[in-house]
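YM 10:42: Dolichol-phosphate mannosyltransferase subunit 1 sequence, as discussed on the call
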Amino acid sequence: GTAYIHGMKYASGNFIVIMDADLSHHVRLHFLGFFLIKPIVYRKQKEGNFDIVSGTRYKGNGGVYGWDLKRKLISRGANFLTQVLLRPGASDLTGSFRLYRKEVLEKLMEKCVSKGYVFQMEMIVRARQLGFTVGEVPISFVDRVYGESKLGGNEIVSFLKGLLTLFATT
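YM 10:58: structure's back
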């Protein structure tokens, strides 16, 4: 969230594209993927005049490559629980490749309180709550080559707490 706030100060266009940029993924694949998917995201936005276009690993020909079974189950489980409890109308709530209308992102940032993995989910849930439209495009996610995921027991517990908080407050 703090990176979003900082980035918005310098964004001059009408749209902001958000993506992981911690360089933990293979840089060549990361930026090549961005330049390949970017036109598809903008096309989808124009097609439906969406406020948000989210890349999804779980719809169409999207997918995940390089994850072990445990990581896939955690991601699928988190998305399934969220679907059941919050009915967000989006298939991939934990992904972080998204295009936002700048003014929509600013409004969402005012409303969101979550930290960590719950933050991405809250952005979509709050967007729906505020009546913003969300489109999706399939993406392929390739796991990091260097470094380790920050996903551990504490993050899973934090996610579950955040999910229950959103369930109680939305």
